[in-house]
Specification:
Helices cover 27% and strands 25% of the residues. By secondary structure, it is of the alpha/beta class.
Length: 351
């Protein structure tokens, strides 16, 4: 008897089925076989940071799994403290935390949560970031500036994340900043379903700039709508000027599509430009409602029929405009988490 491990047994993980009982046996010498707990009952666990607890709870309800119990608090000097009240040894851990305002606090929370789970021997840690902060700093467009999104990618990897799940990155090439797998979801299925249900006549999809033209073209194709592009010039940080609108928008219902609304300066410029061209009505659709600085005041003063966003970022009840429509991406992330956990394809979630 050499006491060697049996390394030749094959382990296969299957999606949940009725009366499914997972697990496998391994022998160590003459010791009795040990059965691993069922995947359905115990291997998947989801924790939430403080950035968007309602979204995390909705995802858990969709997956019919309880949210992991943990303690996330701060010391009197502001230091973040995290402790899992669940056993994560050998488990597939998903940490839901968009790095929205305050970006640095929420990013630090996520890094600390990842480190805690790594040191508790989690088998895999997936950082679920519905909104990826610092994504706009993805290149050196001026002398002596950082590529902050690359830095954030390095921090997440160094902390111990094994995988990233995010949605509508400001620049798709950020996926290449990671040396770990990145699953990049799109909010398009959710937004397109809603726009389609509105039955707008004479519909035109408008991209505020050339960078979003690919997204707008995909929307226009799916909705059988016209396409327009704004000629936007950024004159300073959070300051943009729209010089021209390329495309036919006269007497049209125009849906302005973008990945985020930050200070709403771009939306203001686009709406003013469209107002001079005789559009019928204007709808704004964006994935991430960053809504920083004067965004609420600016949006409240515009003649917009509706502002459509997702719940990738939490908007407090008291700060919601009357014409604000929030669409849930919980099912989208729920299906992605299910597919990652059971090692199945997530390509069906893409447009």
């Amino acid at each position: 008897d050499t006491g060697l491990w049996n390394l030749h047994s094959e382990v296969r993980i299957l999606p949940p089925q009725p009366n499914f009982s997972g697990g496998f046996r391994r022998a160590i010498g003459r010791r009795p076989a040990v059965r691993r707990p069922s995947l359905v009952k115990g291997d998947l666990i989801i924790f939430s940071g403080s950035a968007n607890v309602p979204l995390a709870e909705e995802i858990c309800r969709y997956l019919k799994v309880p949210k992991g119990e943990c303690r996330l608090t701060r010391f009197s000097d502001g230091e973040i403290y995290f402790q899992s009240h669940e056993n994560v040894r050998g488990r597939d851990v998903f940490l839901i935390q968009p790095t929205s305002n305050p970006v640095n606090d929420h990013l630090m929370e996520l890094l600390i949560m990842i480190d805690a789970c790594k040191r508790a021997s989690a088998s895999r840690i997936t950082a679920v970031m519905p909104y990826f902060g610092y994504a706009r700093q993805d290149r050196k467009d001026k002398p002596r500036v950082p590529i902050s999104s690359k830095l954030v990618a390095d921090l997440l990897t160094a902390a111990g994340a094994n995988r990233i799940l995010t949605m509508d990155l400001h620049a798709s090439q950020i996926q290449g900043f990671f040396n770990i797998p990145v699953d990049h979801l799109f909010a398009a299925p959710v937004i397109l379903d809603y726009i389609s249900s509105c039955n707008f006549e004479d519909l035109t999809i408008l991209s505020p700039d050339t960078g979003g033209a690919e997204r707008a073209r995909a929307y226009a194709k799916r909705l059988n709508a016209g396409l327009a592009i704004g000629d936007k010039r950024r004159v300073a940080d959070n300051v943009a000027e729209v010089m021209h609108i390329i495309g036919d928008v006269e007497a049209k219902t125009v849906v302005i599509c973008d990945d985020m609304i930050d200070t709403a300066g771009t939306v203001v410029e686009i709406v003013h430009a469209l107002g001079l061209l005789g559009v019928k009505r204007i709808v704004v659709a964006a994935t991430h409602p960053v809504f920083s600085g004067p965004a609420f005041e600016r949006l409240g003063q515009l003649a917009l029929e509706e502002i459509v966003v997702t719940n990738s970022i939490l908007i407090p009840e008291g700060r919601r405009l009357q014409n604000l429509r929030i669409l849930s991406v919980a099912a989208l992330f729920g299906e992605a988490i299910r597919s990652i956990h059971y090692e199945t394809s997530i390509s069906t979630l893409f447009v």
